[in-house]
Specification:
With 311 residues, this protein is α+β, with helices and mostly antiparallel strands. It contains four helices and twelve strands.
Amino acid sequence: MSNIIEVEIENRSYRPFLNLDTDSRKTIRLTTLTDNQIGAVIKIFLNKNGIRIPLKEFNIAGINPRKSGLPRFELGGLYSEKTLYLELKVDGRKSEIFEIRMTPYLRNKKIPFYIVSLLVILFLFVWGGILLIKNITSPGYEQFSPDKIENVLPDKNTNRTASSVSPAVPLKQEEKKPVENKTAAEGQIKPVPPPAEPVKTELLERIIYFTPNNTSITDRASLVLDELIPILKEKKAAAVEISGHCALSGTEAGRERLSRERAFTTLNYLKKEGWAPEKELIIKWYGGTRLISSNPDEIYRNRRVEIKITF
């Protein structure tokens, strides 16, 4: 196992800095990589058995522009009592000392012995239960009802048990014949009527649209509703559902009120044109919870009333 502190500057390369297993204090000098560089990024990693774990990142800005290759940074490290202390100097100016607790990074994640023991015990318990159930439900195990217990008791005369007796042959069940309907007078077979076919229903759906923050029926919407009037008058027993919707703007309470008013405005228009529903109507309003599109060019599709007619 190896635990080495590495330094990376400007995302270029990793450079070993401090071996936590053998070193306690070390200093390293770094330089800028390009001329007139005014900023740098220095990253500190823990290389634990080939896996790099980030520990600290220094973002340095406002340094004096100079030619590359000259030592500009001095990084000092001290490792003591599972704690890493880092100090960075820029052009000789000291910075604050950073303290990093290394215990969480150096801890080997092993499963405690007592957890392993519990898992083994649990496995043995489950496995034993499976074997027990398998033995009970195996074909060699048989249960007897009280009226058959005498067959397995020892025979006093022959000194043998029923296990030596040939098993009883099960009786052959009679095949059930289909019941025939006959008339009492003639005794003739009465044909069974075929099952009734399910009632077929048709669903008619229409959608009308509204202008923003408005509940008035537009001219285009009135054309759609006028086409529905003859159908509703003819199909008086049809089930009708009217649901109002709106776009996602304003407050939640305002959207709910607007979608409700749109639904009832549509209902009032149909009644005004002479439709008198015979069945109970379903009126719903959803506010802005059931949007069709979030595209700004199609936002009008959310300001709508849906009409569903089932007959």
